Amino acid sequence: MKAKVLIVMGSDSDLPAMEEAAKALSGFSIPFRLTIASAHRSPELVDELVAGAEKEGVQAIIAGAGAAAHLAGVIASKTVLPVIGVPLDSSPLKGFDALLSTVQMPPGVPVATMAVGKAGARNAGILAAQILARQDKKLEKLLREFKKGLALEVKKKARKL
Amino acid sequence: MKAKVLIVMGSDSDLPAMEEAAKALSGFSIPFRLTIASAHRSPELVDELVAGAEKEGVQAIIAGAGAAAHLAGVIASKTVLPVIGVPLDSSPLKGFDALLSTVQMPPGVPVATMAVGKAGARNAGILAAQILARQDKKLEKLLREFKKGLALEVKKKARKL
Amino acid sequence: MKAKVLIVMGSDSDLPAMEEAAKALSGFSIPFRLTIASAHRSPELVDELVAGAEKEGVQAIIAGAGAAAHLAGVIASKTVLPVIGVPLDSSPLKGFDALLSTVQMPPGVPVATMAVGKAGARNAGILAAQILARQDKKLEKLLREFKKGLALEVKKKARKL
Amino acid sequence: MKAKVLIVMGSDSDLPAMEEAAKALSGFSIPFRLTIASAHRSPELVDELVAGAEKEGVQAIIAGAGAAAHLAGVIASKTVLPVIGVPLDSSPLKGFDALLSTVQMPPGVPVATMAVGKAGARNAGILAAQILARQDKKLEKLLREFKKGLALEVKKKARKL
Amino acid sequence: MKAKVLIVMGSDSDLPAMEEAAKALSGFSIPFRLTIASAHRSPELVDELVAGAEKEGVQAIIAGAGAAAHLAGVIASKTVLPVIGVPLDSSPLKGFDALLSTVQMPPGVPVATMAVGKAGARNAGILAAQILARQDKKLEKLLREFKKGLALEVKKKARKL
Amino acid sequence: MKAKVLIVMGSDSDLPAMEEAAKALSGFSIPFRLTIASAHRSPELVDELVAGAEKEGVQAIIAGAGAAAHLAGVIASKTVLPVIGVPLDSSPLKGFDALLSTVQMPPGVPVATMAVGKAGARNAGILAAQILARQDKKLEKLLREFKKGLALEVKKKARKL
Amino acid sequence: MKAKVLIVMGSDSDLPAMEEAAKALSGFSIPFRLTIASAHRSPELVDELVAGAEKEGVQAIIAGAGAAAHLAGVIASKTVLPVIGVPLDSSPLKGFDALLSTVQMPPGVPVATMAVGKAGARNAGILAAQILARQDKKLEKLLREFKKGLALEVKKKARKL
Amino acid sequence: MKAKVLIVMGSDSDLPAMEEAAKALSGFSIPFRLTIASAHRSPELVDELVAGAEKEGVQAIIAGAGAAAHLAGVIASKTVLPVIGVPLDSSPLKGFDALLSTVQMPPGVPVATMAVGKAGARNAGILAAQILARQDKKLEKLLREFKKGLALEVKKKARKL
Predict the structure, then answer these.
(1) Is residue C67 pLDDT above 80, yes or no?
(2) Of F59, F84, F144, the CB nearest to H80
(3) Are chains C and G in touch, 3+ Cβ pairs below 8 Å?
């Protein structure tokens, strides 16, 4: 099945966080491909991935990176697909570096930035689903059910207290 | 013509920044509605706007706010539409407050966060166009031309130097 | 016995910190109710809680949340009761995000913000007691004794040194 | 008429910000006294003010200060009245210093901290009104009307757009 | 023997850091007294300590505290003795709060601020020695030897490498 | 004359700062070329510039950019020439974003990062000269004279005081 | 008359701030010398100044610098005199750089750090006076009067309000 | 064999990070010397090292330090060799202090600043190699191979996923 979302991360050490994006997409039965490419160490590979993704029909790209996290921005410079950036907490500066490097994009080249770390990776998958749902009523319905589920889960926990 | 994008800002003093989002959408001939609603001072109005937007067929919501910028997050809690947050620099803390309040959303409720201020507002409009372009080949083509235009503009400036 | 203070937290993982608020209230024999509700995942539940609290005669609401901590602000947008916000350290950004998201409220909608984490939760309970003590001479006396106790405890520790 | 709220600021240069607290109280017809006392330059004066306030029947103290803003904390160490702290932006560090100095109080001695600057001063007056309203049904009604007014004002501005 | 330096800390949990100040003073055979007093929980005790220290002939006061670290500033407001402040890392905000609360003193009331944590506590003791050495040639000589020792120790470690 | 240093900036608005790099190089009679290229808006142009520079015999590349300043990092990913990054203060976040985006490079791809703004641009030119001087005794001598000049200038100013 | 305090600043542009230190010393009739020396541009000059100061009988050295403010630390590495550091706000980073560069000294080499900017410079003069007063009863009396004056001035301003 | 690069660190506790610089140089067969010298505790030793390095024919100096990391700046004030600074994370402030102390150098005295910690130390070695490669074609070739190796390693990890 063709991937509708491409998940790229800068390093294999980012996998524990970026798996959350994959889990979110799986929860909505959205086909995706997850791979590694570094904006700084393998720039050609990033270019190939983006070009390949556009041809394959990918609808959104999720990019997770830490430190001077340029991956999402570099991808966004090469495509008009929506790019979702996940700043990761992988340097002594606690993710402040990755957050600012991902979000402060210049006018013309947006990166849809998520929270630092696992929470952000999970939300990247959900945002991708929200984007895909613009042309998929069934997915939109799933998202509404997911939203209700979030509220129910909170209520259940409140009752347990 | 029905709005495809709703732009909401927390205060009329946010207009000079948020107009950039409107300009970006106009540049792609995307119909939008621009209004004011405060998550803290007029929460019911926010609810009505979101409900109205979903009925009208809005495909993405852009929310700009400063300080403890909850507007985008509160909207995201009420809809499954993609919500794009623009943190504004309107307190003594230079936008760090608005950035963290907008981007650090909990798992389950993403806000696609842009850069602080005008650059972010401009990019919010472009990201909305990228999302709409997933189901509109003509708009996708416009975005590719826009992207080429960005590069040409840089080259022109380089030549002038 | 009817609750005079409502303690709400955004997630069950916030309990170890927010229990400190409960302990402080118990120490002054103030009846309270402790529950979970998320501004982002269960916004309707938050509305119900606030409406219920007002009817029940609750005099102050304590809200603890981490990351883009909107809970206290969202509650404050729905009530004229004093709302006490406790920013929690539950993201990689060490609580700076929760602090700024809680304290930087716009004019018109105050949130009485406490320190980040357990110290702040403990103080939220004491501030609630101070507010209630405005109409309860016995509680005011208890607070004065508590204050003396703080000083005595310091002296005791100094002597042990 | 006896003051129900005491507003203290660390320096006369804090007046333009702290007047917002006075205006808010005036808007609710709450009698207040506004004065200057520095935690560091006139500590005895601070002690006298607090003692005097308690005798006079003051119900809440608002303290505004910049830089290493200790004023609210020092007042809170001397009274069981609710103390509302307003961090001011009066050093090169943009109010980050005053915010952290005001909000990070140790367990046992809360300071209800507001946003940095004018917005926070305005909200300090409103929080004081919310505290007083716990024993004053008329004031509570005024606060509800004020809250409606906030929403109406937003709607009016939205219409003008 | 009469203390020449008073070391005060805000809480007994500050002892592991503040012992470094004591060790530094011991290394120069400077008599000191080490005690606990909280600016917020035991303000009267702080006043007594300062008054007692002045009478006893103390020449410098070292104050260590975390979070909204007001202890050094409050002491400095009560004495013309040199006050040395040690910000401690005891809240989730990693000592940034204690540093800004200690160092950003208003004109008129200096606090000689040291580095955050153990390094700062150690240096507080050495600065106190440097102040005392202004009237004690023997101590000045010890300080010069200590300084040479620092350099020798570095050289020894370099040789071991 | 063939350029030995390439100065690239992300936008023409960066010129007032980046001219300082040019002035420094001119002061050492080092031939350079100054141009504009954006990592995000004209990535191909960046690639061409880097490839061209290597062919031309450029020995070091200076890259200045603000906000999510990826320019230096993107260049460094394409060359083994020393890349000198100058973070610029061109967003509301005061250059903290550009600094962290420039300096926090992952292992394998260094960027020699300078101070934020004009001071950093000036130093970028000097560092380029220091690198070139490794194979140019005359330039090394010029650098030693420049260094003496710095000291003399300070002394002159001291005398004027 | 021989200087008892040496005031050094890193650049002539620091004079408007560092004059405050001079004014404070003048207010106590303490002889001082004010000069310019840069830790980075004129390191030998710094060494000479320190050696000269020790010979002349200087009792404390005040050093003001901005950005990577190493001046106070470099002086402290060369003397056992108390060194008072004043971080200045002269880079885009608002003085956070100068503050951390001045205060975070390693164990063994203290710098008595003051607030950022003019307030800190003023306090540097006062701290120098407090150090000198340890061996000068008349100066100690002046300091006590100065302290009373601070309180009186606050009271006067309070009365004017 | 004569060292071409000198690696200096402020303390032996910096060795685990600074070894990364040594490893990088070893990987390129570049002879280096690694030693300890503190800008604050052994300033004369630093001077000797720099003078010795210049005589020996060292081409670049790498300096790693934490907290108020003055080492690289102090070295840069004494030489016209390129100085590469590595800020280390060795205080409670997570390396923000070392980063700002290293990078914010005044005009005239550049320090080529790397990322905080191990990543930065590794890159310091690579930057030194890039500088040496300006006069060593064989080394330049090694650097190109190293660069290809980085990309290959990423691809290998991507395939393993």
Answers:
(1) yes
(2) F144
(3) no
Residue of F40, F98, F109 with shortest CB distance to A109: F40
DSSP A25-71: HHHTT--EEEEE--TTT-HHHHHHHHHHHHHHT--EEEEEEESS--H
DSSP annotation string for D45-71:
HHHHHHHHHHHHT--EEEEEEESS--H
Average pLDDT over residues D13-28: 98
Question: How many residues are there in chain H?
Answer: 161
Determine the residue among E118, E157, E159, E160 to mutate to test chain H binding: the one whose Cβ has the most chain H Cβ atoms within 10 Å.
E157
Residue F35 confidence (pLDDT): 97
> How much is the pLDDT for B126?
98
Cβ–Cβ below 8 Å for A161 and C67: no
Over chain G, what HEC string results? CCCCEEEEECCHHHHHHHHHHHHHHHHCCCCEEEEECCCCCCHHHHHHHHHHHHHHCCCEEEEEEECCCCHHHHHHCCCCCCEEEEEECCCCCCCHHHHHHHHCCCCCCCCEECCCCHHHHHHHHHHHHHHHHHHCHHHHHHHHHHHHHHHHHHHHHHHHC
Tokens (6 digits) for B38: 């405060």
Instruction: State how far residue H120 is from chain A, nearest Cα, in angstroms.
Output: 10
The distance of C68 to chain A (nearest Cα, Å) reads: 9
pLDDT at F131 over 90: yes
Which positions ≥6 away from G55 have C-beta within 8 Å?
none
Enumerate the β-bridge partners of residue E6. E33, E61
H53: confidence class by pLDDT, cuts 50, 70, 90: very high
Residue from the list B38, B74, B91 with its beta carbon closest to the beta carbon of C104? B91
* Contact assignment for D39 to E68 by CB distance below 8 Å: no
Residue H126 has pLDDT above 80, yes or no: yes
Closest CA–CA distance from residue H113 to any residue of chain E (Å): 23
CA distance E19 to E16: 6
The pLDDT, as a whole number, for residue H1 is 76
In percent, the amount of chain F with pLDDT more than 90 equals: 99
Q: How many CB atoms lie within 10 A of CB H42?
A: 25
Which partners does chain A have (≥3 C-beta pairs < 8 Å)? B, C, F, H
Residue whose structure tokens are 């008129």: E108
Q: Do B45 and D151 touch (CB under 8 A)?
A: yes
Nearest-by-CA chain G residue for D93: G94
- Contact D21/D77 with Cβ under 8 angstroms? no
User: Which chain B residues contact residue C109 at CB under 8 A?
Assistant: 40-41
At G114 the pLDDT is 98
H92 — pLDDT class (breaks 50, 70, 90): very high
From chain G, the residues in CB contact with F115 under 8 A are 67-68, 91
**How distant is the Cα of G152 from the closest Cα of chain F, in angstroms?**
35
Contact G95, G118 (CB under 8 A): no
- Give chain E's residues under pLDDT 50: none
The Cα of G97 is separated from the nearest Cα of chain H by a number of Å equal to 5
Compare CB distances from A150 to C34, C42, C93 and report the shortest one's residue. C42
Q: Report the percentage of chain C scoring pLDDT > 70.
A: 100
User: Cα(C27)–Cα(C48) distance, rounded to whole angstroms?
Assistant: 28
> What single DSSP character describes residue D10?
S
Give me the interface pTM, i.e. the ipTM: 0.98
Closest CB to G157 among D36, D44, D92: D36
CB contact under 8 A, A118 and B105: no
Show the tokens assigned to G100.
Answer: 């951390």
Q: What letters, b where the CB count within 10 A reaches 16 and e where it falls short, cover D9-26?
A: bbbbebeebbbbbbebbe
Find chains touching chain B: ≥3 CB pairs under 8 Å.
A, C, D, F
Rg, Å, chain B Cα set: 16
pLDDT at F103 over 80: yes
